[in-house]
Amino acid sequence: xxxxNLFTRPARLAAIAPYGWMVLFFLVPFGFVLKLSLxxxxxxxxxxxxxxxxxxGWRALVAAASVLSLDNFRLLLSDDLYLAAGLRSLTVAATAxxxxxxxxxxxxxxxxxxPRRFQPLAMMLVIVPFxxxxxxxxxxxxxxxxxxxxxxxxxxxxxxxxxxxVWLSTDTAMYIGMVYSYLPFMILPLYATxxxxxxxxxxxxxxxxxxxxxxxWRVTLPLSLPGIGAGALLCFIPLVGEFVIPDLLAGSxxxxxxxxxxxxxxxxxxxxxxxxxxxxxxxxxxxxxxxYDRFQRRQMVRx
Amino acid sequence: xxxxxxxxxxxGTALPLLRIDGVGKRFGGFTAVDGxxxxxxxxxxxxxxxxxxxxxxxxxxxxxxxxxxxxGRILLNxxxxxxxxxxLRPVNMMFQNYALFPHLSVRDNIAFGLRRAxxxxxxxxxxxxxxxALVRLEGLEKRRPEQLSGGQxxxxxxxxxxxxRPRLLLLDEPLAALDKKLRDSTQRELxxxxxxxxxxxxxxxxxxxxxxxxxxxxxxxxxxxLVQVATPRQLYETPRSRWVAEFVGDINIIEGRITTRExxxxxxxxxxxxxxxxxxxxxxxxxxxxxxxxxxEKIRLSLxxxxxxxxxxxxxRLEGTVRDVGYLGSASSYTVALDGGASLRVSLANAARLxxxxxxxxxxxxxxxSPDDCIxxxx
Lengths: 303, 379
Known about the structure:
heterodimer; A: mainly alpha; MetI-like fold; two-stranded antiparallel sheet; 14 helices; 75% helix; 1% strand; B: 2 domains; 6-stranded mixed beta sheet; 5-stranded antiparallel beta sheet; 22% helix
């Protein structure tokens, strides 16, 4: 009996740990952000009102709480600037995710078809870029894409173009940076799904008269949907809020929501509107997560 | 070991549906299949039997098109299909793990091959309904494979494999994943289905009982070669080699040398069992050093030595002591240590209910068997 208890208690603690982590590092900070998003901007230190002072007593707290309002959210919904930024973020993230899928799927598929002993090496090659700082790698792309950068030199040398092409500060540069930076997040879940796929299923499809293309379309692709979902979410969600890549590589005419947030926070010192933007962003991203979760559950029901 | 060619032995019979002609396959330095030649007749139920790694599955995969032979031809109705990809062969396979599509329902699994064949929707529906009834899966059409029992999955796999009415159906260990009770009933169903549909089946198995029960003919493989092709009875009663004799069923092997050879009768001296008489098999060579193989159920035991059999032939009588008794229900298995030093396994049917364990450990007995029950083989 005592041995059983010894085993159970740490196990129970281990089961609670993730929830503790969630509360401490997500829910509590999110509570602060949520409160901030309901506050008013003020020329003060800190730059918002009300400030909850727990030592001032219950009545003061209630008075402070009555100042909270949804004004910032009304502003976000009424101003085209924010709507445009939100819409652009979603379209950019969706486009980049589609590109990532188009590029990542063949790579993951090829990896899963390699002889078993080469697969760890291939996985290593996918992960290796993580050993260098993300920021430095994006700066390296500035170097490659600039007027007299490597890309233009190569294109000129090969006589593909007669004059240097403007790459920097365009959407093309931004998409290059996004696809480059997020590719491992697309490849790894896809590879995990594809490498677990029973090869006899494709043989069965071929045996029943499917050409290789039909086998892929009817068997491999549907069975790799969980990997596609995981990879797409893993890329899409951070891409919507991406700040560094559009800021360094894209033009400044149409900012993404992350850039707008940065602008409100650092340039305008409007912390409440910045916080409201963050809350809106989270609300938008909850939707694909809920859909994915539903999908996963449906998969789990049939073991 | 000498490989057999089945082709010559069948000269003059009906045209084979499938002719495997000198087919070989190597994987790196390993020879998986080594010059196998075999004819399969239309409507036949053929079993490829052998230990794991003998090349039977590789041979089957070459017939399905998943492996390409390094040498030889595979003639289906006279046409060489050795290089034809699997989706263009009029051959279907039932996979060992069934390989059912987990994302498709029972219905869609069965209809998969029909859709690829471009059949009309109404025709597909009719065919699927027919197949579902044939393998008794009515009411389960909408289920997914993981919602089915092992036996139901096996029947879906079978229905899917026969849906396209293939000339030749290949079955890779079709019953290996089922428990014993289910396996027995499924064996009968499989055989009935083969007759009903008039298809030609080639089944790969490592289970000799399965091969014996199912097949019209069995091809025994060892180390990439076909070592004997025979009916189940021939295989059991007249194995061609010591390896086959030992692989198929239980057998006592006694090594000896021939002393006299006259009028279809051999006399031998053996190290462990003294003098033995054996019937000379037809087409037996000149070897003097041979071994005598006797199946355990062909040997009788008695407390007193039996008299010679009335037909005039001398029977083999060997004195010994019972060393071990194993009660198996329908039969008992005895180990008799012969005075000559050899050990014999004897199987006796427990024909009477209250009469089991007639011979006890330590008891002196005479083990006896007819010369006709001796299989004489090269060492």
